[in-house]
Amino acid sequence: MGLVATSAGGWLSDRWGRTAVILTMLTISGLCSFTFGWVVAAPLLILLLVGIIYAFSAIGDSPVFSTGFGVMSPASRPGPRGTLLMMATLCCALSGQPHGERRGGSQP
């Protein structure tokens, strides 16, 4: 799913532009997120279809954002911004959690 979604996101970005793809993917992802709780009671096929669309739209904008960050980085100092983006992505991937969340659910 990830390979197909990221490839399609990059391809669509080349055709439609980064802004259009980001807005489309975020809108689809947001609508799926909003409706997913009600879809749980629906037949399994509908649940799987919404889940696949949700996963595709959530993953598909990732290469568009990465390219956008790279383009926005100043040519004179590309290192710090790229390093920060890479470290944040790596930490989230290794922990399996979005930024800012902690295990255990308790507040400090």
Write up what this structure looks like:
- The chain has 108 residues and is mainly α.
- 77% of the residues lie in helices and 0% in strands.
- It is built from five helices and no strands.
- Helix 1 crosses helix 2, helix 1 packs across helix 3 and helix 2 packs antiparallel against helix 3.
- The longest helix has 22 residues.
- The model has no long low-confidence stretch (mean pLDDT 75).
Please, how many domains?
A: 1
Radius of gyration from the CA trace? Answer: 17 Å
Q: Helical stretch count?
A: 5
Low-confidence stretches: none
Shape: elongated
Percent of residues in β-strands: under 5%
Q: Provide the helix percentage.
A: over 70%
Summarize the structure.
It is built from five helices and no strands. With 108 residues, it is an all-alpha fold.
Question: Which helices and strands, and how do they pair?
Answer:
Layout: H1 2-16, H2 18-39, H3 44-60, H4 62-72, H5 78-95
Helix pairs in contact: 1-2, 1-3, 2-3
Provide the descriptors you would attach to this structure in a database record.
108 residues; mainly alpha
